Amino acid sequence: MLNPMSRIILLNKPYDVLCQFTDRQGRRTLADFVPLKGVYPAGRLDRDSEGLVVLTDDGGLQARIAHPRHRMSKTYWVQVEGVPGEAALRGLCEGVRLRDGVTRPARARVMDTPPGLWPRDPPIRERKSVPVTWLELTLSEGRNRQVRRMTAAVGHPTLRLIRYRVGSWTIDGLEPGAWLALG
Catalytic one among 16, 32, 46, 57? Predict the structure, then answer.
């Protein structure tokens, strides 16, 4: 149950931004985009990934979003090298063996290029001899770099990773770097 007094911020985190508010090395952080105090990311999104980050001042909500035991689903748009066949998709759906154990079953499907997709800066590397495919992948756990490790394990390395949805929240209508306060 959400606390009606909780602040919830949805941010479309750009590529090459750390999912924290400070950095001693001077790299871009959430503070470059969200000028609010007292809110913190509920879970992480790697520096080389883009998309939805939920920020809140509610520690209980942070735990429900980030901790795997709550099984809050998250959907990713994943551009991969090659064209995954039925066996690769089935592997993603049934669970992939990684060094830290087998992943929970996921939902995976091939999708068209996401609608309204913004260009990434810098652009991904492109090789004319290797096709690329977009996947929609929905997980209910959040291991470190899990999506990238899963796609690599089924033979299709991730080129671009965008978190589209966390629970019922999405990045719909949010340009990279834009944020929205809910409530």
Answer: 46
8 and 53 Cβ atoms separated by less than 8 Å? no
Does residue 16 sit in the same domain as residue 44? yes
* pLDDT value for 88: 97
Is the separation of the CB atoms in 63 and 73 below 8 Å? no
CA pair distance 135, 108, nearest whole angstrom: 7
pTM value? 0.93
Both 153 and 116 in one domain: the answer is yes
23 belongs to the catalytic site:
no
> Considering the domain boundaries, does residue 2 fall inside one?
no
Q: What percent of the chain has pLDDT over 70?
A: 97
| Residue pLDDT, tens place only, 2-30 | 666 789 999 999 999 999 999 999 999 99
